[in-house]
């Protein structure tokens, strides 16, 4: 254009988000390029000049005599030439410019010419040529701006997507920040970023997480300013830009802004974008993105994106907090559980020895020949009570043993078929006393699992003795054993009292005894099934119940079959 239209200098500027025209390209003169490229002039300033211009189609011409007095100081480059002594001579302060508008009539940029080679203001022919260049320049600028804008939106959208994606993948705040850091820095073309979270009680200031995992040394005063600003910004859904020479937004007072600027000067940051983080009505912190001197201005598209990301991050923080709270709760519960187990183990242990002594003495007294009838019946009652206490203490000791993670199963092959035979043998006396038919349906050969023989014996014994205990006279109890693939299925079925659906929910809890009065009338500790469950679980198996009140129950135990 400089060559064909005969001008010494041509410059293209675009309108930036902050309402300034930025010189993007300068052709023709190196001196002009050095001086002009990147300079910014308020659009309003240009508009005031254009009001006084002659309209030459798309072009506007303001002869120097109409320009503001001060135009020369602020208007960038003034060529060092002496005007010709001619009535249409070009003056160094003459302004020839084509404002470039988009389809919606918004000013998007300008094309400016200076220094005609013939030293004259352009004549009609030259103006027509310039008009065509202006049209082309307009299209080019708008296309370039749109492409730039689009690329930017894509980057921001990617950053936002990254935040949302990591919201579900990561549960700790520092981990999340590490994951989204690159996306945010690239998306926002930022030099640095940090996040401040507010304390859960909404008082004081929470942690400051730097993008590189390092510390951000914000002074106490600054964190307080940031916290207060974040709350105001979240309420108003504002994003703030802090930069020298730019008015502070509604969330930041002038005094606060000055302190922030002083801090930024100290760490070599030119500007920052400040977005509140929150969820619902609650402000949870803030996100700060920084830029250095010479970086582009923060745009309104970026502000909007930062606000969106602030909302996404707010939800992420809320999730992270819930996770941390739950984590803490689980730890506390685990500690409590360990304490409980230790207490039970200690108390049972301490009770065992005196109880054994009492039992021994009761037996001795029982054998004594000179006892009266009342003493004898008192002794019998004491013995019954003590027997019951011994059973509870033994069950408690076993429960704490099989529930102790520091006491793992020492694995050895165990033949379940043999265990069933022995248990049925032992229980048959009690069964026949009630006229109960006790059947076994199992293969002749061994059916082996891997585990602790004594513990597995206890599983079978508890299930079979329960079945006999909770089945009325003349009922039936069947124990079945079968191998299904790599599992062994042990079933104990009875046609006894059955268990209500509500009771089934609590069956395996310690000390649970049925709400059914008929079942409750039987002696028991409520620990048998709790022990069974723990043993089955620590052998890598599971247990299921199927029962109907008044019809009977089936307990099914699945255990891994021994390999080979
Ligand atoms: P206990 O038998 O010492 O009460 P358990 O833990 O073995 O304790 O059983 C818990 C409760 O489950 C029993 O009180 C009983 O009500 C019910 N229950 C267990 N097995 C059966 C069964 N085969 N039929 C009916 N109820 C049963």
Kindly describe this structure.
There is one protein chain. The chain is of the alpha+beta class. 48% of the residues lie in helices and 22% in strands. It is built from 15 helices and 19 strands. The chain has helices spanning 2-5, 30-36, 43-50, 71-74, 124-169, 173-188, 220-236, 254-266, 300-367, 373-402, 416-433, 453-469, 501-506, 517-520, 528-538, and strands spanning 7-15, 20-27, 40-42, 54-56, 59-62, 95-101, 107-116, 192-198, 205-210, 240-243, 271-279, 282-291, 412-415, 437-441, 448-451, 476-484, 487-494, 542-548, 552-560. The strands form four sheets. The protein has a seven-stranded antiparallel beta sheet. Strands 9-8-12-11-10 form a five-stranded antiparallel beta sheet, sandwiched between helices. A five-stranded mixed beta sheet has the order 14-16-17-19-18, covered by helices on one side. Helix 5 runs antiparallel to helix 6 (173-188) and helix 11 (416-433) runs parallel beside helix 12 (453-469). It is rod-shaped. It starts with a helix and ends with a strand. The model has no long low-confidence stretch (mean pLDDT 88). Adenosine-5'-diphosphate is lined by residues 462, 466-467, 470, 494, 496-499, 507, 512-514, 519, 524-530, 553.
Ranges with pLDDT <50 over ≥5 residues? none
Radius of gyration: 44 Å
Question: Which kinds of small molecule does this entry bind, naming each only once?
Answer: adenosine-5'-diphosphate
As a percent range, the share of strand residues is: 15-25%
* Amino-to-carboxy terminus distance: 89 Å
As laid out across the biggest beta sheet, the strand order is 3-2-1-7-6-5-4
């Amino acid at each position: 254009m400089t060559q064909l239209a005969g001008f010494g200098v041509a410059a293209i500027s675009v309108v930036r988000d902050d309402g300034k025209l930025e010189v993007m390209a300068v052709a023709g003169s190196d001196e002009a390029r050095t001086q002009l490229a990147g300079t910014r002039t308020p659009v309003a300033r240009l508009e005031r000049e254009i009001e006084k211009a002659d309209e030459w189609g798309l072009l506007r011409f303001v002869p120097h005599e109409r320009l503001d007095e001060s135009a020369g100081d602020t208007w960038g480059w003034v060529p060092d030439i002496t005007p010709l002594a001619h009535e249409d001579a070009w003056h160094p302060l003459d302004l020839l410019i084509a404002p470039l508008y988009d389809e919606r009539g918004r000013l998007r940029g300008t094309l400016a010419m200076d220094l005609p080679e013939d030293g004259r203001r352009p004549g009609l022919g030259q103006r027509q040529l310039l008009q065509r260049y202006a049209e082309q320049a307009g299209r080019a600028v708008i296309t370039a701006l749109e492409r730039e804008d689009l690329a930017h939106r894509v980057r921001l959208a990617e950053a936002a997507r990254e935040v949302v994606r990591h919201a579900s993948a990561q549960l700790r705040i520092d981990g999340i920040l590490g994951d989204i850091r690159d996306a945010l820095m690239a998306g926002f073309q930022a030099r640095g970023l940090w996040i401040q979270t507010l304390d859960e009680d909404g008082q004081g200031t929470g942690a400051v997480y730097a993008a590189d995992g390092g510390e951000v040394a914000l002074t106490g005063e600054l964190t307080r300013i940031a916290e207060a600003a974040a709350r105001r910004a979240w309420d108003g859904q504002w994003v703030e830009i802090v930069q020298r020479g730019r008015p502070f937004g509604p969330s930041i007072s002038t005094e606060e802004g000055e302190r922030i600027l002083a801090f930024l000067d100290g760490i070599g940051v030119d500007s920052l974008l400040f977005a509140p983080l929150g969820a619902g009505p609650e402000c949870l912190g803030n996100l700060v993105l920084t830029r250095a001197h010479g970086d582009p201005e923060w745009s309104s598209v970026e502000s909007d994106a930062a606000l969106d990301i602030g909302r996404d991050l707010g939800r992420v923080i809320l999730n992270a907090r819930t996770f941390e709270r739950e984590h803490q709760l689980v730890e506390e519960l685990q500690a409590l559980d360990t304490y409980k187990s230790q207490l039970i183990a200690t108390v049972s242990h301490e009770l065992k020895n005196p109880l054994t002594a009492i039992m021994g003495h009761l037996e001795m007294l029982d054998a004594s020949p000179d006892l009266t009838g009342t003493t004898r019946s008192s002794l019998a009652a004491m013995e019954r009570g003590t027997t019951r206490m011994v059973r509870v203490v033994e069950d408690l000791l076993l429960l704490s043993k099989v529930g102790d993670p520091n006491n793992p199963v020492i694995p050895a092959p165990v033949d379940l078929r043999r265990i069933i035979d022995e248990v049925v043998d032992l229980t048959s006396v009690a069964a026949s006393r009630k006229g109960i038919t006790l059947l076994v349906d199992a293969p002749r050969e061994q059916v082996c699992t891997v585990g602790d023989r004594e513990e597995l014996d206890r599983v079978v014994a508890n299930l079979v003795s329960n079945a006999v205990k909770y089945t009325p006279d003349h009922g039936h109890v069947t124990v079945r054993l079968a191998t299904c693939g790599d599992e062994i299925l042990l079933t104990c079925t009875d046609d006894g009292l059955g268990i209500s659906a509500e009771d089934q929910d609590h069956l395996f809890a310690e000390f649970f005894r049925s709400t059914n009065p008929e079942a409750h009338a039987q002696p028991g500790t409520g620990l048998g099934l709790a022990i069974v469950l723990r043993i089955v679980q620590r052998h890598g198996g599971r247990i299921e119940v199927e029962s109907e009140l008044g019809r009977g129950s089936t307990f099914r135990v699945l255990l891994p079959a021994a390999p080979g």
